[in-house]
Amino acid sequence: MSESTVLYDLPGPGTRRRHGLYAVVSTAALVGVVCWLLFLLLDSGQFAAVKWTPFQYKGIQELLLRGLGNTLKAFALAAVLSLGLGVVLAAGRLSAHRPVRWLATLLVEFFRAMPVLVMIFFIFVALRVQALPALVAGLTFYNGSVLAEVFRTGVNSVERGQREAAYGLGMRKTQVMSYVLVPQAARAMLPTIVSQLVVALKDTSLGYLITYEEFLHAGKLIASNLDYDLPFIPVVMVISPIYIGMCMLLSWFAHRLARRQRRSPRTEAAGVPPAEPGTLLPGAQ
Question: Which has the closest alpha carbon to 200: 72, 68, 70?
Fold first, then answer.
């Protein structure tokens, strides 16, 4: 008889053997796919020395670093402005004044429904704005509207009793939001906020369509160079890990921030001392 737990029964010897067989087969299939892809790259000459030569030159390295810096600059501006716009729109959607709530809802739904690339092109072409402000504005309008819904949902997810108790203590609405609702909702909203910021980071690559010299634009210039036999795959193999690394670093930072917030004295429950004998009320037994 196998031992059982609360959630499921522990697998027996036959099930463990099947699971081990599945793991071996899956690993072998994955290794086979990787080997097949490497063979295709080798067969097409993607690892030829001529395709990797440009990364040895200082000018190419400076071009990539400059593009990476422009990408981080656009992301930093878009992230800060998106968070600010999201807070403003969320406050409007939570407002007790109906006209303000309707206007904020209209803006949120419009910017969420509009493709971010269309907004960037409209700002860049129709309004004749420079590449960096056009890119930042498009990312801000889209991600800010999405974050507004995240903030509104997070605040509404706090138990209604918390709000009623705060109002019962005589706190104003601003104080209830600042000291009661937002601190409790922050930890629940943090993973979604980070996910949306990762989307904003990846969407900075749309800047190359409006000639903004960001990281992907620099890679495109290198990949289209005939002198190095169009090193498209090597450029992708160099740029992709950097994008993935930046997204993972952002997620790691958010995880550290969440752990630090959980350890904060403001979010920890206060210890309750044990009951001690006291003076009995008159008439008490």
Answer: 72
Q: Cα–Cα distance between 75 and 135 in angstroms, integer? A: 10
Q: What percentage of the chain's residues is helix, strand, coil (to nearest 5)?
A: 75, 0, 20
Q: What is the pLDDT of residues 6-42, one digit of tens each?
A: 556 677 888 888 888 999 999 999 999 999 988 888 8
Identify the residue with better confidence: 268 or 163.
163
- Partnered with residue 4 across adjacent β-strands are 9
Do the beta carbons of residue 71 and residue 213 sit within 8 Å?
no
Give tens-digit pLDDT for 130-165. 999 999 999 999 999 999 999 988 888 888 777 778
Other CB atoms within 10 A of residue 148 CB: 27
What was the pLDDT predicted at 264?
58
**Distance (Å, rounded) from C-alpha 275 to C-alpha 16?**
52
Phi, psi of 9 (to 5 degrees): -80, 140
For 156, residues 6+ apart whose C-beta sits below 8 A from its C-beta are: 94
Three-class DSSP category at 7: coil
Q: Give the Cβ contact number of residue 56 at 10 Å.
A: 8
Lowest mean pLDDT of 15-19, 69-73, 279-283, name the range.
279-283
| Residue with token string 């990312």 | 139
Distance CA 109, CA 152 (A): 14
Which token pair is 114? 């509009």
Specify the amino acid at residue 146: V
